Amino acid sequence: MKKDKLYHTDIAVVGDIVSFDMNDDGTGVIYEIAERRNYLSRKAPRIKGAGYRGERLEQIIAANIDHFVIVTSVLEPPFNNKVLDRFIVIGESAHLNISVIINKCDLDANDFIDEWVNIYNEIGYDVIKSSVVTGQGMKKIKEFITGGKNLFWGQSGVGKSSILNTIFPLLTLETGAISSFTVKGMHRTVTAVMLNPEKNIFIIDTPGIREIDPFGIKKEDLSHYFIEFSEFSVNCRFNTCTHHHEPYCAVIAAVENNKIRVERYESYLRMLDTIEEDMIF
Ligand code: GDP
Ligand code: ZN
Protein backbone atom coordinates (compact mmCIF):
# COMPACT_ATOMS: atom_id res chain seq x y z
CA MET A 1 0.00 0.00 0.00
CA LYS A 2 1.30 3.43 -0.86
CA LYS A 3 2.39 5.55 2.08
CA ASP A 4 0.01 8.41 1.29
CA LYS A 5 -2.94 6.02 1.44
CA LEU A 6 -2.02 5.06 4.96
CA TYR A 7 -2.33 8.60 6.21
CA HIS A 8 -5.76 9.48 4.93
CA THR A 9 -8.12 10.17 7.78
CA ASP A 10 -11.35 9.24 6.07
CA ILE A 11 -12.46 5.85 4.90
CA ALA A 12 -15.38 6.62 2.59
CA VAL A 13 -16.33 10.16 1.66
CA VAL A 14 -19.18 11.89 -0.13
CA GLY A 15 -19.01 11.11 -3.83
CA ASP A 16 -17.33 7.75 -3.40
CA ILE A 17 -18.63 4.83 -5.37
CA VAL A 18 -18.85 1.92 -3.00
CA SER A 19 -19.90 -1.70 -2.85
CA PHE A 20 -21.88 -2.61 0.22
CA ASP A 21 -23.97 -5.28 1.89
CA MET A 22 -27.26 -4.35 3.47
CA ASN A 23 -28.30 -5.86 6.78
CA ASP A 24 -31.92 -6.67 7.63
CA ASP A 25 -32.10 -3.80 10.10
CA GLY A 26 -31.37 -1.20 7.43
CA THR A 27 -27.73 -0.69 8.32
CA GLY A 28 -25.03 -1.64 5.86
CA VAL A 29 -21.38 -2.50 5.55
CA ILE A 30 -19.13 -0.98 2.90
CA TYR A 31 -16.57 -3.49 1.71
CA GLU A 32 -15.04 -1.73 -1.25
CA ILE A 33 -14.43 1.83 -2.42
CA ALA A 34 -13.82 2.30 -6.12
CA GLU A 35 -10.70 4.19 -7.12
CA ARG A 36 -11.31 7.94 -6.97
CA ARG A 37 -11.23 9.87 -10.25
CA ASN A 38 -10.31 12.95 -8.25
CA TYR A 39 -10.84 14.26 -4.76
CA LEU A 40 -10.71 17.43 -2.76
CA SER A 41 -8.71 17.35 0.42
CA ARG A 42 -7.18 19.61 2.99
CA LYS A 43 -4.81 19.39 5.87
CA ALA A 44 -6.82 18.04 8.75
CA PRO A 45 -7.58 20.85 11.19
CA ARG A 46 -5.52 21.09 14.31
CA ILE A 47 -7.11 19.00 17.00
CA LYS A 48 -6.53 20.03 20.57
CA GLY A 49 -4.07 17.69 22.20
CA ALA A 50 -3.11 15.94 18.99
CA GLY A 51 0.56 15.52 18.19
CA TYR A 52 2.48 17.08 15.37
CA ARG A 53 1.73 14.28 12.96
CA GLY A 54 -1.96 14.80 13.54
CA GLU A 55 -1.70 18.25 12.04
CA ARG A 56 -0.30 16.88 8.85
CA LEU A 57 -2.96 14.35 8.07
CA GLU A 58 -4.78 14.68 4.82
CA GLN A 59 -8.51 14.88 5.18
CA ILE A 60 -10.51 14.03 2.10
CA ILE A 61 -13.67 16.08 1.81
CA ALA A 62 -15.36 14.71 -1.30
CA ALA A 63 -14.52 12.57 -4.30
CA ASN A 64 -15.38 12.09 -7.97
CA ILE A 65 -16.32 15.70 -8.57
CA ASP A 66 -17.35 16.86 -12.05
CA HIS A 67 -17.56 20.58 -11.30
CA PHE A 68 -16.00 22.64 -8.60
CA VAL A 69 -18.27 25.67 -8.41
CA ILE A 70 -16.66 28.53 -6.54
CA VAL A 71 -19.20 31.04 -5.31
CA THR A 72 -18.08 34.62 -4.68
CA SER A 73 -19.96 37.89 -4.30
CA VAL A 74 -19.63 41.45 -5.53
CA LEU A 75 -20.22 42.91 -2.08
CA GLU A 76 -21.16 41.71 1.41
CA PRO A 77 -18.55 40.23 1.54
CA PRO A 78 -16.68 42.31 -1.06
CA PHE A 79 -15.13 40.51 -4.00
CA ASN A 80 -11.66 39.35 -3.01
CA ASN A 81 -9.57 38.04 -5.88
CA LYS A 82 -6.96 36.60 -3.54
CA VAL A 83 -9.54 34.44 -1.82
CA LEU A 84 -10.86 33.34 -5.21
CA ASP A 85 -7.36 32.49 -6.42
CA ARG A 86 -6.79 30.41 -3.34
CA PHE A 87 -9.90 28.36 -4.09
CA ILE A 88 -8.80 28.07 -7.71
CA VAL A 89 -5.41 26.73 -6.66
CA ILE A 90 -7.08 24.18 -4.44
CA GLY A 91 -9.32 23.10 -7.33
CA GLU A 92 -6.50 22.98 -9.87
CA SER A 93 -4.26 21.00 -7.56
CA ALA A 94 -7.05 18.44 -7.23
CA HIS A 95 -7.53 18.34 -11.01
CA LEU A 96 -11.08 19.62 -10.79
CA ASN A 97 -13.06 21.34 -13.49
CA ILE A 98 -13.54 24.85 -12.10
CA SER A 99 -16.19 27.52 -12.62
CA VAL A 100 -16.92 30.72 -10.80
CA ILE A 101 -20.19 32.33 -9.77
CA ILE A 102 -20.15 36.00 -8.82
CA ASN A 103 -23.30 36.57 -6.82
CA LYS A 104 -25.06 39.68 -5.50
CA CYS A 105 -24.66 41.49 -8.84
CA ASP A 106 -27.74 43.51 -7.87
CA LEU A 107 -25.41 45.39 -5.51
CA ASP A 108 -22.97 46.29 -8.28
CA ALA A 109 -24.32 49.66 -9.38
CA ASN A 110 -21.27 50.51 -11.52
CA ASP A 111 -20.58 47.08 -13.01
CA PHE A 112 -17.10 47.19 -11.54
CA ILE A 113 -17.08 43.40 -11.46
CA ASP A 114 -16.97 43.15 -15.26
CA GLU A 115 -13.24 43.75 -15.33
CA TRP A 116 -12.76 40.78 -13.00
CA VAL A 117 -15.05 38.69 -15.17
CA ASN A 118 -12.75 39.50 -18.10
CA ILE A 119 -9.65 38.55 -16.17
CA TYR A 120 -10.97 35.10 -15.33
CA ASN A 121 -12.55 34.55 -18.74
CA GLU A 122 -9.22 35.31 -20.39
CA ILE A 123 -7.59 32.58 -18.35
CA GLY A 124 -10.32 30.19 -19.46
CA TYR A 125 -12.66 29.96 -16.49
CA ASP A 126 -16.42 30.19 -16.96
CA VAL A 127 -17.80 33.01 -14.85
CA ILE A 128 -21.52 33.35 -14.19
CA LYS A 129 -22.84 36.62 -12.81
CA SER A 130 -25.84 36.07 -10.58
CA SER A 131 -28.28 37.60 -8.19
CA VAL A 132 -30.85 35.95 -6.01
CA VAL A 133 -32.66 39.30 -5.84
CA THR A 134 -33.11 39.85 -9.59
CA GLY A 135 -32.88 36.21 -10.66
CA GLN A 136 -29.91 36.95 -12.91
CA GLY A 137 -27.91 33.85 -13.78
CA MET A 138 -30.19 31.34 -12.05
CA LYS A 139 -31.21 29.53 -15.25
CA LYS A 140 -27.63 29.44 -16.43
CA ILE A 141 -26.41 27.95 -13.17
CA LYS A 142 -29.07 25.27 -13.29
CA GLU A 143 -28.20 24.30 -16.86
CA PHE A 144 -24.59 24.29 -15.97
CA ILE A 145 -24.88 21.92 -13.03
CA THR A 146 -27.27 19.44 -14.62
CA GLY A 147 -25.80 16.02 -15.22
CA GLY A 148 -22.81 15.85 -12.91
CA LYS A 149 -21.66 16.02 -9.35
CA ASN A 150 -21.11 19.65 -8.38
CA LEU A 151 -19.20 20.72 -5.36
CA PHE A 152 -20.27 24.20 -4.25
CA TRP A 153 -17.78 26.19 -2.28
CA GLY A 154 -17.57 29.75 -1.11
CA GLN A 155 -16.73 32.09 1.69
CA SER A 156 -19.40 32.47 4.31
CA GLY A 157 -22.16 34.90 3.34
CA VAL A 158 -21.66 35.00 -0.43
CA GLY A 159 -25.11 33.51 -0.98
CA LYS A 160 -24.34 29.90 -1.81
CA SER A 161 -27.31 28.54 0.13
CA SER A 162 -29.62 31.27 -1.16
CA ILE A 163 -28.73 30.40 -4.76
CA LEU A 164 -29.43 26.71 -4.23
CA ASN A 165 -32.69 27.40 -2.40
CA THR A 166 -33.77 29.71 -5.25
CA ILE A 167 -32.99 27.25 -8.02
CA PHE A 168 -34.46 24.32 -6.10
CA PRO A 169 -37.50 25.48 -4.13
CA LEU A 170 -37.67 22.12 -2.37
CA LEU A 171 -34.34 22.76 -0.68
CA THR A 172 -34.33 24.54 2.64
CA LEU A 173 -30.68 25.17 3.30
CA GLU A 174 -30.04 27.45 6.22
CA THR A 175 -29.21 30.97 5.07
CA GLY A 176 -27.69 33.91 6.85
CA ALA A 177 -26.39 31.51 9.49
CA ILE A 178 -22.88 32.23 10.56
CA SER A 179 -23.01 31.89 14.32
CA SER A 180 -23.37 28.13 14.44
CA PHE A 181 -20.10 27.76 12.58
CA THR A 182 -17.95 29.86 14.82
CA VAL A 183 -18.06 28.25 18.22
CA LYS A 184 -14.49 28.79 19.33
CA GLY A 185 -12.31 25.87 20.24
CA MET A 186 -14.72 23.25 19.01
CA HIS A 187 -13.44 20.63 16.70
CA ARG A 188 -15.84 20.48 13.78
CA THR A 189 -16.19 17.29 11.90
CA VAL A 190 -16.36 17.29 8.14
CA THR A 191 -19.94 17.44 7.04
CA ALA A 192 -20.05 17.28 3.30
CA VAL A 193 -23.43 16.11 2.09
CA MET A 194 -24.75 15.05 -1.29
CA LEU A 195 -28.02 16.69 -2.31
CA ASN A 196 -30.14 15.38 -5.15
CA PRO A 197 -32.80 18.09 -5.49
CA GLU A 198 -33.90 16.96 -8.95
CA LYS A 199 -33.34 14.01 -11.18
CA ASN A 200 -29.84 14.16 -12.64
CA ILE A 201 -28.64 17.01 -10.45
CA PHE A 202 -26.18 16.29 -7.68
CA ILE A 203 -24.79 18.93 -5.37
CA ILE A 204 -22.19 18.41 -2.74
CA ASP A 205 -22.64 20.96 -0.02
CA THR A 206 -20.17 21.52 2.76
CA PRO A 207 -21.99 23.41 5.49
CA GLY A 208 -19.47 22.48 8.17
CA ILE A 209 -16.34 23.54 6.32
CA ARG A 210 -15.36 27.10 5.63
CA GLU A 211 -11.60 26.83 5.39
CA ILE A 212 -9.39 24.68 3.28
CA ASP A 213 -5.76 24.58 4.15
CA PRO A 214 -4.45 22.88 1.05
CA PHE A 215 -2.59 19.67 1.58
CA GLY A 216 0.79 18.97 0.08
CA ILE A 217 1.26 21.91 -2.28
CA LYS A 218 4.96 22.64 -2.70
CA LYS A 219 6.40 26.09 -3.38
CA GLU A 220 7.90 25.00 -6.68
CA ASP A 221 4.58 23.53 -7.82
CA LEU A 222 2.34 26.44 -6.94
CA SER A 223 2.70 28.16 -10.32
CA HIS A 224 1.28 25.08 -12.09
CA TYR A 225 -2.02 25.94 -10.49
CA PHE A 226 -1.95 29.44 -11.96
CA ILE A 227 -2.63 27.88 -15.30
CA GLU A 228 -1.94 30.92 -17.50
CA PHE A 229 1.65 31.05 -16.18
CA SER A 230 2.65 27.75 -17.74
CA GLU A 231 3.22 28.92 -21.31
CA PHE A 232 5.79 31.36 -19.92
CA SER A 233 7.35 29.38 -17.09
CA VAL A 234 8.75 26.83 -19.51
CA ASN A 235 11.14 29.60 -20.61
CA CYS A 236 12.48 30.46 -17.16
CA ARG A 237 16.23 29.99 -16.96
CA PHE A 238 16.04 27.72 -13.92
CA ASN A 239 13.65 24.85 -13.86
CA THR A 240 13.19 25.26 -10.12
CA CYS A 241 12.22 28.91 -10.64
CA THR A 242 9.53 30.11 -8.23
CA HIS A 243 9.07 33.32 -10.26
CA HIS A 244 9.78 35.34 -7.19
CA HIS A 245 13.29 36.77 -7.36
CA GLU A 246 15.18 34.54 -9.75
CA PRO A 247 17.05 36.08 -12.68
CA TYR A 248 15.85 35.38 -16.22
CA CYS A 249 12.36 34.58 -15.04
CA ALA A 250 9.97 34.47 -17.99
CA VAL A 251 6.91 34.80 -15.75
CA ILE A 252 8.13 38.10 -14.29
CA ALA A 253 8.89 39.28 -17.82
CA ALA A 254 5.36 38.33 -18.88
CA VAL A 255 3.91 40.36 -16.01
CA GLU A 256 6.02 43.33 -17.04
CA ASN A 257 4.81 42.99 -20.63
CA ASN A 258 1.16 42.72 -19.56
CA LYS A 259 0.91 39.15 -20.76
CA ILE A 260 0.07 37.97 -17.25
CA ARG A 261 -2.24 40.09 -15.13
CA VAL A 262 -0.44 41.74 -12.27
CA GLU A 263 -3.42 40.99 -9.99
CA ARG A 264 -2.88 37.28 -10.53
CA TYR A 265 0.87 37.54 -10.07
CA GLU A 266 0.46 39.40 -6.78
CA SER A 267 -1.97 36.78 -5.63
CA TYR A 268 0.58 34.13 -6.54
CA LEU A 269 3.32 35.86 -4.53
CA ARG A 270 1.04 36.18 -1.53
CA MET A 271 0.26 32.47 -1.63
CA LEU A 272 3.87 31.52 -2.17
CA ASP A 273 4.64 33.33 1.05
CA THR A 274 2.16 31.28 3.04
CA ILE A 275 3.35 27.85 1.93
CA GLU A 276 5.35 26.10 4.57
CA GLU A 277 8.52 24.38 3.45
CA ASP A 278 7.55 21.16 5.13
CA MET A 279 4.11 20.61 3.75
CA ILE A 280 4.99 17.36 2.06
CA PHE A 281 5.67 14.07 3.69
P1 GDP B 1 -23.92 31.41 2.32
O1 GDP B 1 -23.24 31.56 3.66
O2 GDP B 1 -22.96 31.56 1.19
O3 GDP B 1 -24.74 30.18 2.21
O4 GDP B 1 -24.85 32.69 2.19
P2 GDP B 1 -26.42 32.82 2.44
O5 GDP B 1 -27.17 32.14 1.34
O6 GDP B 1 -26.71 32.40 3.83
O7 GDP B 1 -26.63 34.40 2.24
C1 GDP B 1 -26.02 35.35 3.10
C2 GDP B 1 -26.83 36.64 3.04
O8 GDP B 1 -26.75 37.24 1.76
C3 GDP B 1 -28.31 36.43 3.31
O9 GDP B 1 -28.75 37.48 4.13
C4 GDP B 1 -28.94 36.50 1.94
O10 GDP B 1 -30.26 36.97 1.99
C5 GDP B 1 -28.05 37.48 1.23
N1 GDP B 1 -28.00 37.24 -0.24
C6 GDP B 1 -27.84 36.06 -0.87
N2 GDP B 1 -27.82 36.22 -2.20
C7 GDP B 1 -27.98 37.54 -2.44
C8 GDP B 1 -28.03 38.33 -3.65
O11 GDP B 1 -27.94 37.84 -4.79
N3 GDP B 1 -28.16 39.69 -3.49
C9 GDP B 1 -28.24 40.28 -2.25
N4 GDP B 1 -28.38 41.59 -2.22
N5 GDP B 1 -28.22 39.55 -1.13
C10 GDP B 1 -28.09 38.21 -1.20
ZN1 ZN C 1 10.29 32.07 -13.33
Description:
- This protein has 281 residues and is an alpha/beta fold.
- It is 26% helix and 20% strand.
- The chain has helices at 3-6, 52-55, 81-93, 113-123, 138-145, 160-167, 230-233, 250-256, 262-274; strands at 18-22, 28-33, 39-43, 58-63, 67-73, 98-103, 126-129, 149-154, 193-198, 201-205.
- The strands form three sheets. A six-stranded mixed β-sheet has the order 7-6-5-8-10-9, with helices on both faces. Strands 1-2 form a two-stranded antiparallel sheet. A two-stranded antiparallel ribbon has the order 3-4.
- Helix 3 packs across helix 9 (262-274).
- Residues 1-8 and 178-188 have low confidence and may be disordered.
- Bound molecules: guanosine-5'-diphosphate and zinc ion.
- Zinc ion binds at residues 233, 236, 241, 243, 246, 249-251.
Give a quick summary of the entry.
This protein has helices at residues 3-6, 52-55, 81-93, 113-123, 138-145, 160-167, 230-233, 250-256, 262-274, and strands spanning 18-22, 28-33, 39-43, 58-63, 67-73, 98-103, 126-129, 149-154, 193-198, 201-205. It is 26% helix and 20% strand.
Give me the secondary-structure topology.
Elements: H1 3-6, E1 18-22, E2 28-33, E3 39-43, H2 52-55, E4 58-63, E5 67-73, H3 81-93, E6 98-103, H4 113-123, E7 126-129, H5 138-145, E8 149-154, H6 160-167, E9 193-198, E10 201-205, H7 230-233, H8 250-256, H9 262-274
Parallel strand pairs: 5-6, 5-8, 6-7, 8-10
Antiparallel strand pairs: 1-2, 3-4, 9-10
The structure holds guanosine-5'-diphosphate and zinc ion (ZN).
